């Protein structure tokens, strides 16, 4: 999914001082973003957040639905990241410049590695309910210019325990490893609980973690959580305690604190201002990013760069 904002901010993320040392329990309120104009699809964006820019290598999180809407995102570019598409309800058709064409449905994973440059489009049927999340994973410098790639995983491994089932999207959880390709140590899992159930999910204490409620109500490590805000848990936890008020579905994100500084602007992740300028120029001149066969509408133009050099914003706490 694209960041369709016409005046995107440049964001400095990562760095050794950017993760909270020790356990936290901080509710991060998202902001509403409308994709595709005033009548477009509404999403709640909780990463990057004013207070927490990243959770491990996870650097972008949009939660949309449940809503009867249609996603229609024309061809647009990405660099330096992976896009992770996960649905709770509905279906989305992915196309990219590599020739990939894949419908994703609930319980399946679409993973696109942008690397040095890729372009893609997404669309869903009209008049259908749609509910899901779009996430980005920042690539470390050693892999930022890797060749672009696309993966579809129709089935994923699960970790089960008393009161819960966790489907492992990315990385590893409790010894269960996703087949999806990763470039840094991380965790991504959807955890489901029945009404009234309590569960204890193992965590890696060297990771920082965050939890997002996708549906239902749940208490996470003593914090009541409903769909909307992201609960940032910091580092140092060896377990996640959950208690469902009613049937609940939560997204768990985690990872080794990202030690590198990156710049995010629009749909690009790069190392500095000059890289972002080059990415934009190459997209606007039709170089590097290829053509997406069958993409809806016309390719998405990049926003104008500000009239002064982009200066990364630091992390605020």
Give an overview in words.
- The chain is mainly beta and about 325 residues long.
- It has a single domain (about 30-255), classed as Jelly Rolls, CATH 2.60.120.
- It is about 5% helix and about 50% strand.
- It contains 1 helix and 26 strands.
- It has one helix at about 275-285, and strands at about 10-15, 25-30, 30-35, 40-45, 60-70, 70-80, 80-90, 90-95, 100-105, 110-115, 120-125, 130-140, 150-155, 160, 165-175, 175, 185-195, 200, 210-215, 220, 225, 230-235, 240-245, 250-255, 260-265, 270.
- The strands form 5 sheets. Strands 2, 14, 15, 16, 17, 19, 22 and 24 form an 8-stranded antiparallel β-sheet that branches. The protein has a 7-stranded antiparallel β-sheet with strand order 3-4-5-12-7-10-13, with no helix packed on it. A 4-stranded antiparallel β-sheet has the order 6-11-8-9, with no helix packed on it.
- A hairpin with a 2-residue loop joins strand 15 (about 165-175) and strand 16 (about 175).
- The protein is globular.
- This is Pirin.
- Belongs to the pirin family.
- InterPro entries: Pirin, Pirin_C_dom, Pirin_N_dom, RmlC-like_jellyroll, RmlC_Cupin_sf.
- GO terms for molecular function: metal ion binding.
């Amino acid at each position: 999914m694209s960041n369709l904002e016409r005046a995107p901010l440049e964001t400095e993320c990562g760095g050794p001082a950017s993760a909270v040392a020790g356990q936290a329990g901080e509710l991060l309120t998202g902001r509403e973003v409308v994709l595709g104009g005033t009548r477009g699809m509404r999403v709640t964006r909780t990463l990057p957040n004013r207070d927490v820019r990243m959770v491990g290598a996870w650097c972008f999180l949009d939660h949309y639905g449940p809503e009867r809407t249609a996603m229609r995102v024309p061809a647009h570019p990405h660099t330096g990241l992976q896009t992770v598409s996960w649905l709770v309800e509905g279906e989305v058709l992915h196309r990219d410049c590599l020739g990939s064409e894949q419908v994703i449905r609930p319980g399946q994973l679409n993973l696109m590695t942008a690397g040095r440059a890729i372009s893609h489009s997404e669309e869903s049927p009209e008049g259908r309910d749609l509910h899901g999340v779009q996430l980005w994973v920042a690539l470390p410098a050693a892999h930022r210019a890797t060749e672009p790639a696309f993966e579809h995983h129709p089935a994923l491994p699960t970790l089960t325990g008393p009161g819960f089932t966790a489907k492992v999207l990315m990385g590893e959880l409790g010894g269960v490893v996703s087949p999806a390709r990763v470039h840094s140590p991380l965790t991504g899992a959807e955890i489901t609980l029945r009404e009234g159930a309590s569960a204890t999910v193992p965590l890696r204490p060297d990771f920082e973690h965050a939890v997002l409620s996708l549906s239902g109500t749940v208490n996470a490590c003593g914090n009541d959580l409903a769909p909307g805000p992201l609960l940032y848990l910091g580092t140092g936890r060896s377990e996640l305690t959950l208690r469902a008020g009613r049937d609940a579905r939560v997204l768990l994100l985690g990872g080794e604190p990202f030690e590198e500084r990156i710049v995010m602007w629009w749909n690009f992740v790069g190392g500095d201002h000059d890289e972002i300028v080059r990415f934009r120029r190459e997209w606007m001149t039709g170089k590097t990013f290829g053509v997406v066969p069958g993409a809806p509408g016309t390719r998405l133009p990049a926003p104008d760069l500000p009239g002064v050099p982009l200066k990364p914003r630091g992390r605020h706490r």
